[in-house]
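Input.
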Amino acid sequence: MDAAGEELADRVRALLNGAGGVEERRMFGTRAFLLDGHILVGARPGGTLLVRVDEETGAALSTRAGVARAVMGSRTMGTGWLDVAPRVLADDGELMFWLDVARENAEQSG
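Output.
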């Protein structure tokens, strides 16, 4: 993981501090944050945030500037996996928005 990805992981960790049931694990070149064994978000190289949502929510959110369907290796993922560009995450308020979206999705599907 590069410095930008580590910095994002530190920010995510700080914002999720005290959130029950959240664990951190290295997965797929990403520092993943999981709730009850399901990925919420991941800090990726370059400071990109990987966000897991349901397909319908992902389709709606992917129209926002700086948000795209995640690409893992040569594979473009479905609309339930989003990459959020570092420029979108400049402040903790915006990062918290994405963490909340991921948690809401996990709670609804879990």
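Strands lie at 22-27, 30-35, 38-44, 48-52, 67-69, 71-72, 75-76, 81-84.
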